[in-house]
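User: Second chain of the day. Same drill as before.
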Amino acid sequence: MSVLDRPATINHAVAFIIARLPSVDRERIRAMPRKDLFELHHGFGTWVRNALLHVAGGNAELVADCARVLEAARKERIAKNPVLASLDPRFEELRPPIDFDDCSMVIIERVWEALNARDVH
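Assistant: Same format as last time:
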């Protein structure tokens, strides 16, 4: 895949992946409970990282899109929990940077959501 072909957004990455997944894999992922998606970290997640994130020296656009999603989710969790809200500013500098593992899980979750939003047969 060239730099010009790689998906630059999560939505494009999801479409790219679904178009290439065999139907048996689409059905297997669709049927998984959301809580079990972490089981895809090795294997499928490795493929996502290698094919979409590491390609041609990195995919800064896709990582940035994933970072926006992760940051929004973090802010939502903090807003719902007064204890986290009081602690967050003090520990902000200790939070690790977003990495390809984080991004691949965002993409895997979105693939799962897309497969569960439509008929995959």
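The chain has six helices and no strands.

User: Great, on to the next one.
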